Structure to design on (350 residues):
């Protein structure tokens, strides 16, 4: 096991059968600790002790899609839907800026209300008030023209998890969506010079270790600047109600392997990890993650953006989240970096 981990550390690659062997067979706490320590060592060669902070604004829970795992899917009629208008988004950014954030992540369902014109207006306004900040969008699949307009308005980065690299599994989870189109969106975003983020969920129903190897291979070949990996957590108002869901331990293994395969990636320690385990986010940092995304959304909408059950931090003010996360990062032995936190490849351009 350790030979494989060392080869992965030294070469940033392994064959598929070797990755599968690691996923199938790594069990002992000593081997796991070895893997996590190597992942942290690799992260330190590129980013030292830094953990980058991004302010997350969940600005709409309307969605036209029906992903079978997602709590805000279109067919879930129990969701209390909301949209934040331009002023509400700007005041989240203002508060975030005062708290020190220099990246704002605007995330939402695929909501046709937010036309290009509306989004361009919002992005331009954020950029004119906070020219030293980066804007990340995470609003799903759009046309190339739309991605062009959003980039020209000042968007720097775009998160679009590929969700799973297995075509069969993807199609079983995403009614009326296209596996090929999701990937095509990622390639378009790359072509348009966005810093791109892909990623996947761990523990999806019927997901095998072979599927996870496909995820790792896809990420290795795409080498996105950001990679979001989190456990799948079931939601009762979805067709997957009663599914088992992913575990923190398996997600940590995938995070560490990803760090070693794509060493310079910006890898978030996700809220989903903190939801499954009170120390989940610290554990992720100790397995190679180097980004956290505390919530800046107004507290009265937080509970409504319920992708999965028991999501944490829904009642906390932005300032509280900032402080809480900072304490956790320091306690885990890392330091908080409030800068824009661009990927190393993009630092010269900005
Ligand atoms: N609509 C945008 C998109 O499609 O990229 C962004 C919003 S979407 C809710 C953000 C991410 O949440 C998804 O990419 C998915 O991986 C994750 N997610 C959704 N439901 C989840 C669940 N039940 N458990 C864990 N993660 C989930
Ligand atoms: Fe659209 Fe989840 S189904 S955000």
């Amino acid at each position: 096991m350790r030979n494989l981990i060392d080869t992965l550390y030294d070469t940033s690659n392994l064959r598929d059968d070797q990755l599968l062997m690691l996923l199938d067979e790594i069990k002992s706490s000593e081997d796991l600790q070895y893997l996590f320590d190597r992942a942290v060592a690799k992260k330190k060669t590129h980013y030292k002790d830094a953990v980058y902070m991004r302010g997350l604004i969940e600005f709409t829970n309307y969605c036209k899609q029906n992903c079978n795992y997602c709590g805000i899917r279109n067919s879930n009629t129990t969701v209390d839907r909301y949209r934040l208008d331009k002023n509400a988004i700007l005041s989240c950014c203002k508060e975030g800026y005062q708290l020190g954030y220099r990246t704002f992540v605007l995330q939402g369902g695929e909501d046709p209300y937010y036309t290009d014109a509306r989004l361009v207006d919002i992005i331009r306004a954020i950029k004119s008030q906070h020219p030293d900040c980066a804007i990340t969008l995470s609003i799903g699949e759009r046309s190339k023209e739309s991605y062009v307009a959003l980039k020209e308005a000042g968007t720097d980065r775009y998160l679009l998890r590929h969700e799973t690299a297995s075509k069969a599994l993807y199609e079983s989870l995403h009614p009326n969506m296209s596996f090929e189109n999701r990937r095509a969106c990622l390639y378009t975003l790359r072509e348009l010079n966005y810093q791109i983020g892909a990623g996947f969920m761990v523990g999806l129903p019927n997901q095998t270790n072979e599927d996870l190897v496909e995820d790792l291979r896809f990420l290795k070949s795409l080498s996105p600047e950001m990679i979001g990996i989190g456990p799948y957590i079931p939601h009762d108002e979805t067709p997957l109600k009663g599914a088992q869901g992913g575990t923190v331990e398996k997600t940590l293994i995938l995070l560490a392997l990803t760090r070693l395969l794509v060493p310079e990636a910006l890898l978030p320690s996700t809220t989903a990890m903190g939801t499954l385990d009170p120390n989940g986010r610290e554990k992720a940092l100790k397995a190679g993650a180097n980004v956290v995304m505390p919530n800046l959304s107004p507290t009265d909408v937080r509970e409504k953006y319920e992708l999965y059950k028991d999501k944490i931090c829904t009642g906390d003010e932005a300032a509280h989240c900032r402080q809480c996360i900072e304490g956790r990062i320091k306690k885990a032995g890392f330091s908080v970096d409030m800068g824009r936190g661009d990927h190393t490849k993009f630092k010269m351009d900005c």
